[in-house]
């Protein structure tokens, strides 16, 4: 849910990684990956809808909070011209493509709830279905490779990943507080 909401996550793609690992470890039957993909889909739809609703309620002022840079202008222009397509593509593409600005812009620029939900739900169902299938089909092989061929590197890679996650979270908190102080 958090991955698709306005709350920034320091490491994008965390949901995909967790879904891949769960599908790989619990892949005794096809039902497990389907359940995991359904849970990821449901959480993503709830989080994405809150982002769209925040944009709808905040209007273009919500977009101004994202900044005035070239990226924000390009997102706004793309969403104005290609409403449903922009939401669908941003929802399908893996990180580092940012999802939140597109969802916020879709709400702020008047994409209707029905059109938003259709494009977002179809794209997220395809994405999480594909991720779960990949985890189910190839996850064990990747885990075996990790355990056998990268045995000496497992701990440093995990420490680096967790360190980046913590540093990203701290940076996000610091940046949020700095922004609030400037606004006062």
From TrEMBL:
Of the GO CC terms on this record, one is: plasma membrane
Domain (VTT) ranges? 27-136
Task: Write one Pfam family the protein is assigned to.
Answer: VTT_dom
Q: Which domain of life is it from?
A: Bacteria
Q: Which stretches are annotated as coiled coil?
A: none
Task: Please provide the record's keywords in A-Z order.
Answer: Membrane, Transmembrane, Transmembrane helix
Q: Where are the transmembrane segments?
A: 34-55, 83-105, 156-174
Which protein are we looking at? Answer: VTT domain-containing protein
Q: What organism is recorded for this protein?
A: Telmatobacter sp. DSM 110680
